[in-house]
Each structure stands twice: as structure tokens, then as C-alpha cells.
Amino acid sequence: MRMSRLLLRTLRDDPADADTAGHALLVRAGYVRRVASGIYTFLPLGTKVLHKASAIVREELDRAGMQELLMPALSPIELWEQSGRAKKFGSDALPAMVLDVRGGRFVLGLTHEEVVTSTVSAEVDSYRQLPLTVYQIQTKFRDEARPRFGLLRGREFLMCDAYSFDVDKAAMVVSYDVAKAAYLRIFERLELPVTPVEALSGAIGGDVNHEFMVASPIGEDHFVRCEKCGYAANVEAAAVGPPHGDGPGADERPARRRVATPDAPTIEAVVALLSDPEIDASRTLKAIAAFDEGGEPVVVLVPGDREAKLPRGWRLFEDEDFAAHPELVRGYLGPVDLGVRVVADASVVAADHAWVVGANEPGAHLKDVVLARDFDVHDVGDYVVARAGDRCTRCGGDLELVRAVEAAHIFQLGLTYTAAPGAFVMEGATFTAEDGTEQPFWMGCYGFGLSRLLAVLAEAFHDDHGLCWPPSSAPYDVHICAPGSGRTPAVRDVADALYAELTARGVDVLYDDRDVSAGVSFADADLVGVPLRVTVGARGLERGIVEVRDRTTGEVDELAVDAAATALHARRDSPAR
RNA sequence: CGGGCUGUAGCGCAGUUUGGUUAGCGCGCUGCGUUCGGGACGCAGAGGUCCCCGGUUCAAAUCCGGGCAGCCCGACCA
Q1: pLDDT per position as a tens digit, A321-373
Q2: H or E element: which one contains A571?
């Protein structure tokens, strides 16, 4: 591509609305432009990178035996009503965009379990057609509460989503492992270090699932990793081991007493009000009202300085639930003499000190409350969100906390969309098994954020001067600069010839044929970040050479003019890194 | 959804407090000339619904009211 013809304008200043270095560079270097909040145009350079990444995704998924198809972005709401997920629209978990148009009400697809399940159900009747995994690369829409970080969280984004269909659980696990391995190969080819972590499944459903996390300072997620045994999990899902401690001692402790705490419904407010050097948030108990999977009210206790984590299927109390249960006083909940089932995190039971707890009446708390003496718990479990320094449940090692971007997320859906009671079951999602019986499909689904990947790559691969693409995702293989070509015919002739020869050999070249100063040409080359820059100039031609500079390492080599094309072609195929 | 900040040329910004000629600056853009291997310089130009609607006033980018958009922070509850 001749740069004089490329739809490209580089910017000298960071755009005012860019909040990360990577995104600022994608805008400055002319890869993307914002159209509206969370909505972007991919200019030709950005589109090239999307195509390069998509090609890798397609190659690896095809190689894993998957088949590409393309489903509509618009789907009739009836499909979502059938599965029951329409009821979740508007929530954070399922922020769907819904459209009333001629012909009825449609949903702009934010994920395609319903569509793919009805499609496959209509085409597959027999176990002989299984296993089957299909995928698509398509634009998705989500009504995000707050789009941010450029391409990282948009309202419209490009995604690769795959769906597997199997005869039973064991076969599903095989398909899942195949997809997981394929995704790992994709990240390897993109040169992005990724960590698969155990995670929560949210509104998608299913049990086993993994997120593919890329460590990054702009990540919106955190995962914990055990340095010793390699266990890795999202903090929301991580199992946390009980801390050391013997539980409350048999020693004499002051009796519990009531203290007035008006207008102090939060832990911070209570601690501030008591202003007792002995009492910080860790000496208070958070008591959280929720419904368990059976719909029964339950109160969960965690230390006041910890974030709580609810088991699958549990649901927090909302305003109307508190209204319906006046005995549970919002902001002043405590375990003493509470007529509701109480469960506690293991760290609560292991602690050997007294607690400050809500008194179950507005404006009052209880001090010096001791487990077993003043209250009992019906069950002990793992109810806290992991944090750095917690112990690994597998090996007892220390967990470290890593900030990361969720680049992909894969799920073992099982029968969630086909037969599981109370799940998002679609009609007729069955096949005839070998024994002649009708059986539901066992499904998996596998999502990979492609436009988000652009943001992740830009964040991972840049320096002060611009982007530094790895060859696998770079928009071009080679960038030719020809300073002085506008007034030195020999330079122009050699550069033109090199461009023509490389292009003929299938090397993808960005040729800066603009009549601009050397400084501008080099600065733009740095900004755009093509892996190899070739400089054809009068200075080198006097010695019969051109210069090759590696954008990432800064290493400079010299090549004889007449051998340059051959050498660059060879280097493109096996980058010397 | 709550709070804060912002909206002026393609991009980055000043001007708004205290209303007053023809609304400025840098980058970018066009033309001519000089220069030119790390974002050159001179001269001459082009480019504006000052976010929108309404109001106050002789006069509004500036004051008032309402709206919209962007960015940031927070988001249940403990």
C-alpha cells in the first residue's frame, strides 16, 4: 500500500477522551476513530489488524474441527422468551438492545445461545451428526451502563463465538478441551501471554468455565494465582482457604453490650463512630441478606473488611425483599437472636476475637459479641472474594493478585439451554440417540473478543514513540521509508523497485511514498508500528545498502540493495527475534 | 442510576469570572519559495450553527432556564 493513498491521518496530540496509552496510540496512529460513546470506526489500518487476528482465529478453529457459519445480529424476541432470558434484559448481566420494527420486536444479539440452539436443533436429528462445533465472527451489541477504555468495553464490538453440541457430558468435556486448546494456540500465535482462570458463569449459565486473562494495568478484572501450584481463578470465583487461628478461646470475655449507632448503616460509618483503636473494619461482621438456591432467606457473615461472594444460585435482597422481611433491618443486620439461617465464612469461625455486629434494630450495634456464646452459625463455607495474601486451598501457598483483561471466556453449558430444570431451555433441543431415545444436547460455548483484542494488543505492545506490533497481528509486514525520494530520483527508483518486488513476493508492504521530511516519515513509521522498517536513502545507496530496523528491539541491519527483497521475504517468514 | 468536570475549525486548547469591533493560538490543510536522514522555515490563504432550544439585553461564546452529548468517579446492600 502506498501511504500517499492510505486513508490515514496521524495525530500529534493525544485525543482528549483517550484514557489509556494503548487507546491513545490507536487513535493517534489512525487505526480507529470514535463515532459515539463505545462505538468505533475501524480505519483501514485497524481493519487490517482485525483481519490478521481473525485469520488466525479461523485457522485455529478450523484446524480444531469447527465450522464457521454466520447468524443474524437481529433475532426475534420470541427466541429469548422461549429460553426465559428475555426476563433478564436490562440487568447488568444481560444488557440487551431491543428494537421494535415492522414484523415485531427484535433483539440485537449480545450472545447467540438461543439462535444457535434453535438452528442446530432444526438441522441435527441424530447422534451420528455429533459432535458438532460451529462458530461465527460477528458484531455484538450490548447496552453497557458505562462504556470505557476505548475498544475495551464498547456498546458494539466484534466477537468470535463458538458453540459445541455433544451426546453426553463426557463428550462435551472433550469438545471443551479441544476449544480451550485452540484458544490457547491463538493467544500463543498472537504472542500474548494468557492465563486461563476459573471463573463465574454469570448470565450465560453452566458450571465449569474459564476466562482467558491477559495481565494488564488497564484490566477491569482481577484474578489470583498461586505461585506454588499454579492455581488461578478470578477473584469472584477463587476458593479461599481458612486463615490460621483456633477460633474463640475459652477465656473470659466481657459480656456483649448494645451501643447506639444512629445513621451508621455502613461498616465505615460504624468504625468511625466507635472510634476505638481496637476496632477496625476487620473486627466487624458484614451480615448480608440473600436468598439461597431454594429461595429461602439466609444471612451471610464475612469479616467487615472483606468483600462477600455468594454461592451460585443465591440472590441478594433488593429493596422489595427488605420490605417483605421487616425482621431483617437493612444496615443493622447481625447474627444475634436472628430468626433466619446464618452462614459464615471460614475466616469468621477461625478468628479468636470478639465482633461488632448489627443489633437488628435501626441505629444500634452490639459490641463484644463472641461466636458460640452469643450466636451460632448453621453452616461454615467460603464466602469471601479472594485477595492478595490469602492462602491457596490446594497447596497452602500464597495467592498473588493480578489485574487483567478478560480476552476470552469459555463455558461448559451442559444442559442449560436444552433440558436442565429451571434453566434457559429451548424447545426441541434434542436428537435421537443410539438406543433410539430422545436426548438433549450437551453444549459448550466459547467467546473471544476480537475488537477488544486490538485494545489488548495495543496496550501490550507499544513504547513512547508508538505501537510495536508483533508480526502475527501487524497491519503490514514491512514499512519502507524513502527520505529524499522527492528530489533524488535514484532513491525513488530503488524504493519503488523494492516495493514492487516485495509485493510480488507476497510481502505486505506499507510504502511511505509521500514527499515529507525524513523526520515526519520516521515518526509516522514509529507511530504506526509495523515490525520492520526499511530505509532507502541517499546515504545508504552510496554504499549500496538499505537499512532494516526492528521496531520492537531497535536493532538495525544493513542489506545490500540487490539482496534486500530476498532477505526481507525470508525474514518475514521467520522473524529473527 | 447518583455525583463531578467538560462542550469554541479535522486534532489539542485559550477566551466565559467582569456581555461590547471582524472569535484567537498551536498542530493539521491549500499555494509559492527555501530547506530536508528523526515531527524544518518564510510568505500568502482556506476552514467556525462558539453543542442545541428558549430567555434577558441596544448588544450573548460570555448572563439565566431547559435539554443533549462527552469524560471521570461511584453504583446495590452490608
Answers
A1: 787 888 888 888 889 988 888 999 888 888 878 898 988 888 888 988 988 88
A2: helix A564-573
Q: Peptide bond before A243: cis, by omega within 30 degrees of 0? A: no
Residues facing A375 on adjacent strands: A371
Which residue lies nearest B37, CA-to-C1' measured? A518
Can you give the distance from the CA of residue A482 to the C1' of nucleotide B41 in angstroms? 22
Q: List, for residues A34-43, the tens digit of each pLDDT value.
A: 888 888 999 9
ipTM score? 0.91
Nucleotide of closest approach to A13 (CA, C1'): B12
Give the CA A149 to C1' B50 distance in Å.
Answer: 29
pLDDT of residue A243: 65
Measured CA to CA, the distance from residue A485 to residue A475 in angstroms comes to: 24
- pTM, entire model: 0.89
List all nucleotides in chain B with at least one atom under 7 A from a protein Cβ: 1, 10-13, 26-28, 35-40, 69-78
CA atom of A29 to C1′ atom of B43, Å: 31
Q: Nearest residue to nucleotide B28 when comparing alpha carbons to its C1'?
A: A11
* Cα–Cα distance, A377 to A248 (Å, whole number): 14
Closest nucleotide to A486: CA versus each C1': B36
Predicted local distance difference test score (pLDDT) of residue A503: 97
How far apart CA A133 and CA A38 sit, in angstroms, is 31
**From the alpha carbon of A150, which nucleotide's C1' atom is closest?**
B71
Q: Locate cell 483501514: which residue? A: A44
Closest CA to A213 of A227, A229, A205, A224: A224
Report CA(A16)–C1'(B66) in Å, whole number. 28
**Residue A577: pLDDT band with limits 50, 70, 90:** very low
CA–C1' gap, A504 and B37, in angstroms:
28
Give the integer Cα–Cα distance in Å for A512 and A522: 10
Q: Which nucleotide is nearest to A542 (CA to C1')?
A: B37
Residue A510 makes CB contacts below 8 A (sequence gap 6+) with A1, A3, A6, A475, A476, A478, A479, A480, A528, A530
Q: In this predicted model, what pLDDT tens digit does every residue of A472-484 receive, in sequence order?
A: 999 999 999 999 9
Rounded Cα gap, residues A288 and A290, in angstroms: 6
Helix, strand, coil: what percent of chain A each, to 5?
Answer: 25, 30, 45
C-alpha cell at A465: 514513540
Of all protein residues, which has its CA closest to the C1' atom of B1? A145
Amino acid identity of residue A239, one-letter, is A
CA of A31 to C1' of B37 (A): 27
CA of A536 to C1' of B66 (A): 61
CA distance A511 to A509: 6
Distance of alpha carbon A283 from alpha carbon A353, whole angstroms? 8
Measured CA to C1', what is the nucleotide nearest A17? B71
